Amino acid sequence: MSGNVTSNPMTVPFLSRIRIYPVKSLDPVELQEAEIGIHSLKYDREFAMLAEDGRFINGKRTGAVNQLKAEYDLAKQVIHLSARSGGEVESFHMVNDKALIERYMTTFFGLTTHWLHHTKGELMDIPTACSVSVVSEASLQSLQHDLNGYDLENIRLRFRANLEIGGVLPFWEDKLFGAPGTGIRFKVGDVEMIGVSPRARCNVPPRDPFTGDTDKSFIKSMMKSRADSLPADSLLPQHGNMYHLTVNTYLPETERGKILRLGDKVEIIETVQLQTT
Q1: Against a cut of 0.90, is the pTM above it?
Q2: What angle (nearest 5°) sits at the alpha carbon of residue 75, between those of residues 39 and 54?
Q3: Which terminus in the chain has less CB density within 10 A, N or C?
Q4: What is the pLDDT of residues 107-142, one digit of tens each?
Q5: Domain of 110?
Q6: Which of 56, 91, 117 delimits the end of a domain?
Q7: CA separation for the pair 236, 213 (Å, rounded)
Q8: In the 8-state DSSP scheme, what is residue 265?
Q9: CB atoms within 10 A of CB 240
């Protein structure tokens, strides 16, 4: 197995990390627990930056988003922005200071920027259908071993998962999706989810999360690493190539208001048919 990562197969899978991304494409916040919101974790991807052409200002469009540092006080709905290279930090209320944030972003990106705010999961990459993304910590460690000596946090930020699973072997999370057209019902603590599909990756992971520079060897190296480490029971080949990581999961409406906590046990329940409409 690639990556030389080992784990006791008898260990119970558990939730080892929770991250949300209050602003789509900007820095995360790490949490001890998270409330289930509407088709997302509460506060996850509630804000986004939109250019005049109607497209998101994100890592797919420009590496400049990686050069913008964001820190948050979620209780006060305040964002602190600065260039990652250093300089003055400017603070804004994320709801009340819309015009000021737009002016700051427009200057930083050199693009007229509109500040969006939605609370019902509309700004997720796959709205409604994918509420959270899941990966195992061992998978990130395996990739770290194979990909040009990047540290683990660098790898973690390239793939921007919400939930990490500990106590498992690399790519254990492949058990959380089925063949195309089927899903896997599972629980994290008291929260029920449905694993829908592996996440096909785009041109964001090859960008350095701190500089925006592109590693042109990244995709090829990742696909080789993924193939070398593929679990024998993985159904990933049925979904296409090896350029996939993390699992798209759906949160049913019944789960709203429940709490995910670090240490919660992860339990697979059953395979289900996915709706195609």
Answers
A1: yes
A2: 50
A3: C
A4: 999 999 999 999 988 988 888 888 999 999 999 999
A5: 47-117
A6: 117
A7: 29
A8: B
A9: 11
